[in-house]
Write a structure and sequence with these properties.
An eight-stranded mixed sheet has the order 1-2-4-3-5-6-7-8, sandwiched between helices. 38% of the residues lie in helices and 17% in strands. It has helices at 2-26, 77-85, 107-123, 140-149, 166-173, 178-182, 190-193, 214-223, 245-255, and strands spanning 42-46, 49-54, 62-66, 89-93, 134-138, 156-160, 201-206, 229-234. By secondary structure, it is of the alpha/beta class.
Length: 258
């Protein structure tokens, strides 16, 4: 009995440590609560999630921007400003564990949070006016956006460096650790979900992205159910320097349709 108990404790410690490590590696978010530096952006709470918003100019759509797994939403301020300067509205949630948003980030919890935010946005509960947004998903945010788009009808969807699944990314980066990748709680199987995405789709992917290979973006494009879909290869860009002048021009050309 003592041996069984000891084995159970060791297993609990192992898996507890493993899942804590997964959280730190997959979601290395900055927990500091930082307020928007641009006066056009307001801060709200939806449940335990901190959300930044800015209203659109008349006739312009709103972009629901889902950030990537690293850093802080405030680091995307320059991007937000470029969108606002062109009249687009903004809704930018901070994933669990980042910018004062409470809770433990997992695929299930983040999916629940973003679904609740989408309902608050489309019902008018968030901004006072019902809004059907354009989704913009960055890296792991692209997986969140794909998942959301399988059960909702956004006006359009932009994916920046999407991956086929989180397990595929882990296998690409650490092929020597197949057991560890098999134990991951967060799977984000975007390739399997892509056929249920039907909104107009633009994918931006850097040709020099070593973290998420461009072939994954191409696979998402091919699998997507959207009738209007395109992959724009950002020449010479890696994973974090995607917003080149060419990429922005292609993005704004896509957005202006809506």
């Amino acid at each position: 009995m003592r041996l069984l108990l000891r084995a159970a404790i060791l297993l609990a410690l192992f898996f507890g440590g493993y899942f804590t490590l997964e959280r730190l590696i997959v979601y290395p978010l900055d927990p500091r609560a930082i307020s928007p530096s641009d006066a056009r952006i307001s801060q709200h709470k939806v449940g335990d999630m901190v959300v930044w918003t800015a209203p659109p100019k008349r006739g312009k759509p709103t972009v629901l921007y889902i950030h990537g797994n690293a850093g802080h939403v405030a680091k995307r301020t320059a991007r937000f400003q470029r969108l606002m300067d062109r009249g687009y509205g903004l809704v930018a949630p901070s994933l669990r564990g980042g910018n004062g948003s409470k809770g433990w980030p997992t695929e299930a919890s983040i999916s629940t949070d973003i679904a609740a935010l989408y309902i608050a946005l489309t019902s008018g509960a968030l901004t006072g006016t019902p809004v059907t947004p354009i989704l913009y998903g960055e890296s792991i945010g692209a997986a969140v956006a794909i998942n959301l788009a399988t059960t909702t009808t956004p006006r359009a969807i932009v994916l920046e460096a999407p991956f086929t699944s989180l397990k595929d990314v882990a296998a690409h980066l650490h092929p020597q650790l197949p057991l560890a990748t098999g134990l991951m709680l967060s799977r984000w199987p975007s390739l399997a979900r892509a056929p249920d995405v039907t909104a107009p789709l633009l994918i931006l992917h850097g040709t020099k992205d070593d973290l998420i290979p461009p072939k994954m973006g191409r696979a998402i494009l091919n699998a997507a159910g959207s009738k209007q879909k395109e992959l724009y290869a950002v020449q010479g860009a890696g994973h974090i320097n995607m917003w080149t002048g060419d990429a922005q021009r292609r993005l704004y050309k896509f957005l202006q349709q809506f």
